[in-house]
């Protein structure tokens, strides 16, 4: 945690610096308001202590400028020559708190703890918003509206959810949306691509292992289920999991406990399971490649994600979304697509679904003109 102390009195600056450093904070100081504003623009602080009465730019001017510049750091105002009117003015202008001199040590430490807790909460909220809005489900077609409605209904529950749909249709996004809207959203979210884990490592990856249980097991390792304890585990490509691993996953779902490889004690886990597959699991069951009892455990709720060809009316909205995302991520000026170019993309078949459309939009933004023309689509897509 980093703190900025702003005061024209060197003794006050040094005293506060010493107190906060003894509490484990990193501290920087400024002797006037102008320096403080310059430092706060260049560096992110978790809290700012600012004296009100300073020559030149006073504390209230510093507070007003930092708030107007969008600085979200909690600002604590301090003064030895203030009255209740000044304190109220500071709070109205956005100060986190107001402390009178001479400064009380306990009050200072309580205030700084509250301020840094608020700073941490602001950071966590930004991360959460990025998770939710950075992966927004785009579309208004009836098929995707039905999916959104199901997500809203199932997310607050602990029911197991099986998400089906073709590759590139957005199954991972559906899983993430369920997690974000659930009561477990502040707990771990662990993703597992079952198709990417070699069969000989699946037990260790999912259930963990004990030191010495096999040649390369040089330390204890927590498996994905234990890592997700209290939260949600997303088993992507569940249809590619071996029958042996399926049996062990079934045990975790039934008994809510697991045994690490090489371990002799069970570990209790409380995990919500969301799974996804592009396979028809009923057919896999008929062929003896998937356990029927596991299927029924996983499929309390089944969410079918439509292919892009089933929701072509959403393609213009998705194009706009991908334009904004690409240009923002790469610092490029926004481009547009001509009406004819959009119509040509709507007419196209999309076997790769939304993932394919995203790649095509990026390709056209790089290679096409501004606006991207019908001819650009014919040259670089068809």
Short note summarizing the structure:
With 382 residues, the protein is α/β, with parallel strands linked by helices. The chain contains 16 helices and 12 strands. The chain is extended.
Strand-residue fraction? 5-15%
Task: Tell me the radius of gyration.
Answer: 28 Å
Mean pLDDT: 90
Sketch the major β-sheet: 5 strands, parallel
Intertermini distance:
54 Å
Lateral strand order in the biggest sheet: 2-1-3-4-5
Number of strands: 12
Q: By helix and strand content, what is the structural category?
A: alpha/beta
Number of helices: 16
Residue share in helices? 40-55%
- Morphology: extended
Oligomerization state of this entry?
A: single chain
One letter per element, helices H and strands E, the order comes to EHEHEHEHEHHEHEHHEHEEEHHEHHHH
Uncertain regions spanning at least 5 consecutive residues: 127-134
């Amino acid at each position: 945690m980093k703190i900025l102390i702003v005061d024209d009195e060197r003794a006050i600056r040094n005293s506060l610096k010493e107190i906060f450093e003894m509490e484990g904070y990193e501290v920087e100081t400024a002797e006037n308001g102008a320096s403080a504003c310059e430092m706060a623009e260049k560096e992110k602080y978790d809290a700012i202590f600012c004296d009100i009465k300073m020559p030149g730019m006073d504390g209230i001017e510093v507070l007003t400028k930092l708030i107007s510049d969008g600085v979200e750091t909690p600002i604590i105002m301090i003064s030895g020559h203030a009255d209740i009117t000044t304190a109220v003015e500071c709070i109205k202008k956005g100060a986190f708190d107001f402390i009178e001199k001479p400064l009380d040590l306990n009050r200072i430490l309580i205030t700084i703890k509250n301020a840094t807790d608020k700073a941490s909460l602001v950071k966590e909220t930004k991360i959460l918003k990025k998770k939710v809005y950075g992966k927004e489900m785009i579309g208004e077609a009836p098929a995707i509206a039905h999916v959104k409605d199901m997500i809203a209904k199932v997310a607050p529950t602990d029911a197991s959810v099986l998400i089906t749909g073709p590759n590139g249709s957005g199954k991972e996004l559906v899983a993430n949306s369920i997690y974000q809207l659930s009561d477990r959203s502040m707990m771990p979210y662990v993703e597992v691509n079952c198709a990417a884990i070699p069969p000989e490592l699946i037990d260790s990856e999912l259930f963990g292992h004990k030191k010495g249980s096999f040649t390369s097991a040089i330390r204890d390792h927590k498996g994905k289920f234990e890592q997700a304890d209290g939260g949600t585990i997303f088993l992507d490509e569940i249809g590619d999991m071996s029958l042996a691993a399926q049996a062990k996953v079934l045990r975790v779902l039934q008994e809510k406990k697991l045994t690490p490889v090489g371990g002799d004690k069970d570990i209790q886990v409380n995990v919500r399971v969301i799974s996804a597959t592009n396979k028809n699991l009923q057919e896999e069951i008929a062929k003896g490649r998937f356990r029927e009892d596991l299927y029924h455990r996983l499929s309390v709720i089944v969410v079918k994600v439509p292919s892009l060809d089933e929701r072509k009316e959403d393609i213009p909205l998705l194009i706009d979304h991908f334009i904004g995302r690409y240009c923002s991520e790469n610092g490029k000026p926004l481009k547009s697509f001509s009406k004819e170019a959009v119509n040509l993309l709507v007419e196209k078949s999309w076997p790769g679904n939304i993932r394919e459309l995203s790649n095509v939009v990026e390709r056209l933004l790089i290679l096409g003109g501004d606006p991207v023309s019908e001819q650009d689509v014919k040259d670089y897509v068809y």
